[in-house]
Each structure stands twice: as C-alpha cells, then as structure tokens.
Amino acid sequence: MKIAIMGAMLEEVEPFLEAGEHEPLLKYFNKHSDVVYGGNLYHEAKYKNLDIVLGYSKIGKVNAALTAATMIEKFGAEKLLFTGVAGAVNPELKIGDLIAATQLCQHDLDITAFGHPHGYVPEGSVYVEPSRELLHIAKAVADEKDIELKGGIVATGDQFIADPERKEWIEKTFDADAIEMEGAAVAVICDAFDVPFFVLRAISDAADMDATFDFDEFLKHSSQVSSSFVLAMLDKMADGTQ
Ligand code: ADE
Q: Whose CB among 32, 42, 177, 206 lies 3.0–4.6 Å from 55's, allowing a Cys bridge?
C-alpha cells in the first residue's frame, strides 16, 4: 500500500523530516530517496509495511492540485493524507485544536453571475467528501490516544483570511468551520482519480485581525500537532488493525 503524506508548506511536513525541538517523526523510516518532479521535492520511504511518498506543494490551490496529481499519477499513491494548519471559523476551535475535514469546498470559486451557487461549477459539486474509512481510522486513533478531534467543513481559497467580514461571509455561505488554502483542491483531484483521502488541520489562528501574527507564532507547533496525529494514523494503518 502506497500512502501519500502531503502538506502545503515545508513547516507542515518538516516534523517528518528533521530533528528539532522534537524527534523527527520519520526517524523510523528507512530507504529514503529524494526525487524532484515538477519543481517539487518528494521523499520516498518505507514505514513498517507501508510505502510512503512525502512532500509539500507550496501554498495555494493550483500548487496543491499539481502535487496531489503527481503523488497519485507519478508516484502511485493509493491513499492521501494531508497534514497542516488552518484558520478557525468556528469559535469552538482554538489554536492547536485538530479538525478533520468531513466536507471541503472552494470559497473563492464564483460563477454566481450565471445563477450557480458559490463554490459550484457544472459537473462538479460544492462539497467534496473525504474517505469514510480514513475518517474512521482517525476517530479510532483519537479515541485510543484520548485526543480531541473535531470534524467539520473546511473551506479552501487562494486567500489568507485575516478579515472578520470575509470570515463571516465564508462561515454563512458554506457553514464552514475552518479555512485554509489547499484542502479542497486536493479533494477534487483525489475524487477525480478515485483515491481515498483525508485532510487534517491544526488551528494556527482565528482568521481575524491577529491572524498573520498568530500564524507566524503557531505554525510550527500546530504543524507538529497535525503531523504527530497523521503518524499515529500510519501506525494504525501499518498494523492492519483497521
Ligand atoms: N491557513 C492558516 N490560517 C489561515 C487563514 N487565516 N486563512 C487561510 N489559510 C490559512
């Protein structure tokens, strides 16, 4: 089974790669080989009985789509786990909290001029849903480790949101719980190729006036929270108990 582990920023996947404040999560991985393709660096490794391809896309929907498609089409990924950070829309989500996307949408996709709803284009759908099986594994990991894992709607767009008005609009229009800049692009690609996927985000900011400051301060910590959880999911998948 080949699993893709994807982030948008180096910081989001770095916990798998480098020793720092914490042990490198991939210290048990062996047989690293690094491949540059389409301007991105991919790491191939073996973890227990799983083949892994790991990389980050750079920020935004286009970059994310390229990386997800590459991981599937060139590297043969059969499942994709996305790890990273997000801005909270739901006030119950605090910095460091984990949210697993149960639906993803594109808040900046707009052909409403033709009478379509926000986030919709013909032959598509406003919301794309991740794999139930992977959500089930995530829930089992959260239960076992006594980690609070919320589920919710993740809205994606090519904008860093640091504006209460825009945040409120996204919340009202899509019933969103969190916002980020890649998840729905990954979802559309995986859905198109019929590859089960899962998007996990740890909150780095509240998409408000303090968002840029909070993002810089909490990016590393929240990335670590999200990566650790994804590693626990890999353990469960490797054990074959799920
Ligand atoms: N990722 C993390 N915080 C974000 C925000 N406020 N807007 C968009 N993407 C984000």
A: 42
